[in-house]
Write a structure and sequence with these properties.
Blueprint: H1 13-29, H2 62-83, H3 93-102, H4 107-114, H5 125-131
Length: 138
């Protein structure tokens, strides 16, 4: 097998390079770059099934509200854990806020930490999230 062969790829190296060049504008801009509208993919229809990154979307109502609250708690827990080192713990509210700010945590995460009770002592991200009123998702 010589170095220019590409196994079972039906496209020649030249064609492959041309296709990469054609896609380059799209990949850099994140938008479709076709001059003719007929080449653009169709937008989603109103009755298309909604695809949610965390799985199937529950029906409207209490189940959806609970699922969104759990997803919010999980996201907050993840962000706190990402930006706090184990050496911070045990920590009070001021230490948690200071560590989050020093580690460049997103502003909404720092704002949530400022809502922690002043008299609390926290040993991990889970305790912080519970102190903010989120239920564990176990």
């Amino acid at each position: 097998m010589n170095s220019t062969e590409r196994g079972s790829n039906p496209v020649s190296p030249r064609e492959d390079d041309e296709r990469k060049h054609e896609l380059e504008g799209y990949l850099r801009s994140g938008q479709h770059t076709h001059a003719e509208e007929s080449h653009d993919p169709e937008p989603a229809a109103d009755d298309d099934v909604e695809v949610h990154p965390s799985g199937p979307v529950p029906p409207p109502g209490e189940a959806r509200d609970q699922a969104e609250a759990e997803a919010g708690a999980d996201a907050l827990r993840l962000e706190i854990a990402r930006h706090l080192d184990r050496t911070v713990f045990p920590a009070d509210r001021a230490a948690v806020v200071r560590a989050l700010e020093e580690n460049h945590a997103p502003d909404p995460v720092v704002a949530q930490a400022r809502k922690l009770p002043e008299d609390g002592t926290y040993h991990n991200a889970d305790e912080i999230v519970r102190a903010l009123g989120y239920r564990p998702t176990t």
